[in-house]
Structures are given as C-alpha cells and as structure tokens.
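Q: Got a minute? One more chain.
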Amino acid sequence: MSIDSLRRSATATVSGLPQGFWWLWLSTLVNRTGAFVLTFLSLYLTVELGHSAWFAGLVVALHGLGGIAGSPLGGTLTDRWGRRPTMVTMHLAAAACAAALAVVTSAWAIATVVLLMGAAMQAVRPSINATIADMVPAHDVRRAYALNYWALNLGFAIASIGGGAAIFLGYRTLFVVDAVATTLGALIVFLRLPETRPEAKLDTRGEPVVEDKVSMLTVLRDAPFRTLVLLNLFVCIVFTAPWIGLPLTMADQGLSPSAYGAVIAVNGIVIVGFQLLVNKLTDKRSPVVLLSLSSLLFAVGTGATALAGSPVAFAATVVVWTIGEMIHVPTNAAATARLAPEHARGRYQGVMGMSWAVAGFVAPIGAGAIVGGPGPNVLWAVTFAIGCLAAVGYSLRLRKALADVTAGGGDERVGGDGAPGTPETAGIPETPVAGIPETPVAAPAGAEAPKSGATDAPAAGKSAVSA
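A: Always. Here it is, folded:
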C-alpha cells in the first residue's frame, strides 16, 4: 500500500463527522493525556508511602468497584439530567479526587478517594457514548467510536511516556497534573459541546408523546441486550487477564520487569499506529462477525501466552489480542447504541459499562488466584475457553438482533415478522433464560452504524480508561 493510498484512507476515516464530535474527541485526548493516577498509583503506594503490594492491589480493585456503581449512575443521569452536565460534573469530580490524592496520606483516606474516583470516571462514559450516538449519523457511529477510542489510547500513551519522564518531580505533582488535564477536558465540554439529548417527540396535535419509562430493570429485561452484556463481560475478563497474568507469567520464566514493560508497551503502540487502518478494513462488516472474530483473537492471543518463552513471543501474543481489542471495543459500543431506544441510550451504555467495571474488579482477583494456585498455563487455558465461548455466543445468540438490512444504505432492527423494527414500535422482550438468553422475535431498536464503536475500555492498567 503506497503512502498516497494510506493518506487517502486516513482522510476518509476522519472526514464527514460533525464538528461537535471533534470537540468531544479533543476532550477525550486532553483528559487521557493527563491519566497519571492509575498508571502510577501502585508505585506511589508501595515506593513512596511504604504500603504493601497487597494493599496496593486492593486499592486498584476499589477503583473498579467504584466503577460498578458509577456506570449505572452515570447512565441514569445522562438520560434524566443530560449528556453535557453529566460529563462536566463527573469530570470535575474525578479531577477533585486526583487532586485529593496529592494531599491525603492515610490508608483509609486513599482507599475512599480511589473508590470515589472510580465511580466518577466510569459515570462519565455513558454520557460520552450516548452523545456520539446522538450526534453522529447512523452509518458513521462505529467509525466515530473507533476514533474516540483511538484518542483515548493516544492520550494514554502520551501519559505513560510523559509520566515516566516527569517522575523526578514526584508522584503528587503527577496527580495534580492529572487533575488539571481532567478539568481542561470538562472545560472543553462546557464551552464547546452542545447538549444532544433527544427532545421529546410530538404527536400530530403538537403534544409531547409519552415515552415508555425505562428503568435499569427494564434494560436488563431486554433479552438481546442482556446477552450482549453477558458476552461482553466474558470478553472483558479475557481482556483483563493479561494485565495481571502476563507479568506474573514472564517473571515465572525468569524474565525481568523491564522485559514486561517493553512487551506490554506493544499494546499501546499497535493501537495508536493501526487503529485507523483496522477501522478502515472492518468498515461495513457485520457486527456479529466482528464481535465473534474479536473474541477468537482474544482467545488465541491469550491462550498462546502459555506457549511463549521469550519477550518476542510474548509480544506476538500481545499483538494478536490487541487486534481483537481494536475490533471489539468500538463494535460493542455501536451495538449497544443500536439496541438502545433513543430516550434510554444513557441507561443502556451505563449497564454495558458496568460489565467492564465488574471484569476490572473480579478478573484481577481470579487471575492472581489461578496463577498462584494451579499456575499460569491454567489461566491461559481458561481465557482461551472463555474467548471461544463468547465467539460462539455472538454467532448463535445475536445474529438476528444485530442483523444488517443494507437496503437504503443503512441498517435497521428486524422484527420477528420480518418487518423492520423502529424505536417507536419495537417492544422490549422479557424472555429470561438461564445462562445466555435466547434472541426474541422483537426488541428495542436504536441506531447503529456499520462501523466500529466505544469508549469503554477497558481493563486493569489501561482500564478504567475504557470507553
């Protein structure tokens, strides 16, 4: 592929999106460029304050625990209060927590602040994802999510490099910089981003149409969406495992921490360098195919870790599951936007974000226990099996719910009678089945695009950066 063709491809990838999206993109980049707290928190607790590694792990887990509560809270506020005020408030709350970490020193105070910070950071994500679904045309939604995820990882890479170079200034200085960057992100949203929450629909007489009330319980009764959340939880667990199990596996083989640092850096390098290309290659592909493919890439990439014996081999496994990450994260967010009714986009994104937070809390504990018990090879065999199970689940359980209708250049949700569903007519199925639910004949419709989407991402380490 020539330089000129690459340039044209990049131009096509970033063109045609509304101006408001780029202000949101910029706020994400600025925010993540100062993401120093999670990156250096464990070092700060152990090296600077002298706490044990066990306590440092517990505090990081509390960040994930806060996210479990913050995600549905943010989703509810996004729908009731509005996208913009929710974003600004939660960004400022996260900034206040980052600044507080530069001051507090007691174990209980640090644990409390990190818990609240996890809630605030996760609460902002449903409003970001809902805003993208509101303002971007349906056929560009997945592309917009992919671009926002690219900004998130680009900012995280800059933060990792800048933080390492600035460490001589002290951890507390980095936390203050994090607070300033997060505040700047909130300021960009406040000054430049319009409110995008859909206005109430009017009937033929000009009277407001009363929308069906959607609670968190209603969202969980949506069988196709519940399946999507469950399968995403499986993928999130697999995605989180390398951030805990990989350094332990490499150490078990006698490799140095610096070797692990170089290997895991491949993840960020690949995303920053190739996210736009992957987005171009997956353009207009079936979301079910993409979600199944990404699950298999996670399965193969993590499973192959058991066979690796050198830094180069470990880096190769990281490349494989990183490609899965680049496909999965934006596609999953776009699928969530597709299944959500317009007036409940925040709640749907909030519940989906909760699956990332649950994985970020549970997976590190499980991975550590397996490595410390049966051993690393058992961990990678488990992640391989879970990834394959998720791939089968997407293919068998969501093919109808996420089926594409290409006539007219868009895609619509197809009801059980073969007629396209719409946000106004599609019902919310209530067919609970143990395990992975069956796909019902009718379901809520939202707008989705044939492109990738999401900001949730993610996992321990980078996580809490998700999406």
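A: The longest strand covers residues 413-414.
Q: Perfect, thanks.
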